[in-house]
Amino acid sequence: MTQTATLESSQQSSEGLRFDWQQDEIAALFALPFNDLLHRAQQVHRSHFDPNGVQISTLLSIKTGGCPEDCNYCPQSVHYETPVEPGSLMDVDAVVTAARAAKQTGASRFCMGAAWRNPRGRNFERVLDMVQRVQAEGLETCMTLGMLDEQQAERLKAAGLDYYNHNLDTSPEFYGEVITTRTYEDRLQTLRNVRAAGMNVCCGGIVGMGEARHDRVSLLKQLAQQSPHPESVPVNMLVRVEGTPLSDQQALDSFEFVRTIAVARILMPASHVRLSAGREQMSDEMQALCFHAGANSIFYGEKLLTTSNPEATADQRLFERLGLHPA
Ligand code: SAM
Ligand code: DTB
Ligand code: SF4
Fold first, then answer.
1. Cβ count within 10 A of residue 78
2. How far is the CA of 144 from the centre of ligand 1 (A)?
3. For residue 16, what pLDDT band results from cuts at 50, 70 and 90?
4. pLDDT at 12
5. Would the CB of 170 count as within 6 Å of ligand 1?
6. Contact at 8 Å (CB) between 159 and 112?
7. CA 284 / ligand 1 centre spacing (Å)
8. 9 CA to middle of ligand 2, Å?
9. In ligand 3, which atom is closest to the CA atom of 74?
10. Would you say the CB of residue 73 lies under 6 angstroms from ligand 1?
């Protein structure tokens, strides 16, 4: 029997991973007393990872703003008046210089993001060049460029791209409240194309957009039912940017955010769960709880794509105080 057939019949892999998590089971995890949930998440975390190791990625916006999509959270959409100044695609040499600097600060992965619906024409050729040149610097490469067709995914893989980031963002039920210019199915199709090309998948979402807990449950179900699970799962706290439709959204309860991390850890035990956007708005204590709940990856460096991230020196101090180390 092939490995896939075995997985489909038992829904349990040899490593004990499950791909058949149901809404009510996930909701029951969310509803556990906080200490019980964190204890369970920490146990799962320890059985799959060095408990004090944190993977470090650095982000660079290679093409900023002017995006035709209408994602309600995003400062780079043309639909909203935000502080973002649109620009064109960066030169390859400038990207390589930024990658070298990221490597010197200790990043193991360099993630390049473009504010596109999908890559096209000469810009796509330049992006392929970037992948090759950044890889040659000895860094893992990741890109997030919007939707990809099968051929584009294959060409990125052939150029040496290690990871592709494409988020589901929220539950299928809440999705239409946030984005109207591309469908949930479009996103799932891009993820299938990335997988078929043999790349690692980085896929997660945003919380704090006004969704209900059942939407967070449903988003995590979508992620955990993917087989294999995404290798990286970014959990972003909404960064409320002036001018976007979500700028006045009420902040999500901190403990609910930590619960989301813990449940992601339990459902996808072997995946890196990334404490992504929103760290600058979190206290050190809140971040420590997220690491305890099983987050084991961060974006490092003063900037995300267009918004700010904690200072590198603040993160170094936090790692020292918590006894964490880059992994
Ligand atoms: N344009 C491409 C796309 O959307 O597929 C790639 C770049 S896009 C900025 C990458 C991800 O950043 C989005 O899917 C979303 O999850 C996250 N993001 C964007 N704006 C955010 C915000 N204000 N707060 C939190 N996460 C955000
Ligand atoms: C992801 O899930 N979070 C990152 C990365 N993937 C590309 C982006 C966060 C962007 C936050 C808003 C900004 O800086 O523009
Ligand atoms: Fe464009 Fe990506 Fe922002 Fe959506 S999230 S508006 S696709 S840059």
1. 14
2. 9
3. confident
4. 64
5. no
6. no
7. 24
8. 37
9. 3
10. yes
State the amino acid at position 54 in one-letter form.
Answer: V
pLDDT in tens, 79-104: 999 999 999 999 999 999 999 999 99
For the CA atoms of 22, 24, 25, 28, the dihedral, rounded to the nearest 10 degrees, stands at 160
Q: Best mutation site among 190, 223, 236 for ligand 2, i.e. most ligand atoms within 8 A of its Cβ?
A: 236
Q: How far apart are CA 144 and CA 166, in angstroms?
A: 6
Distance CA 61, CA 98 (A): 11
Per residue in 46-83, pLDDT tens?
Answer: 999 999 999 999 999 999 999 999 999 999 999 999 99
Q: Is the CB of 277 under 6 A from ligand 2?
A: yes
Structure tokens at 183: 């469908």
| Catalytic residue list contains 74 | yes
Q: Say what the pLDDT of residue 14 is.
A: 63
Q: Which residues line ligand 3 (CB under 6 A)?
A: 67, 69, 71, 74, 76-77, 115, 146
Active site residue 203: no
Kindly state if the Cβ of 305 falls inside 6 Å of ligand 1.
yes
Provide the 10 A C-beta neighbour count for residue 265: 28
Residues in the chain: 327
Across the strands, what pairs with 325? 53
pLDDT band at 106 (very low <50, low <70, confident <90, very high): confident
Q: Is 305 in the pocket of ligand 2 (CB under 6 A)?
A: yes
Q: What angle do CA 91, 95, 98 make, to 5 degrees?
A: 145
Rounded to two decimals, the pTM is 0.95
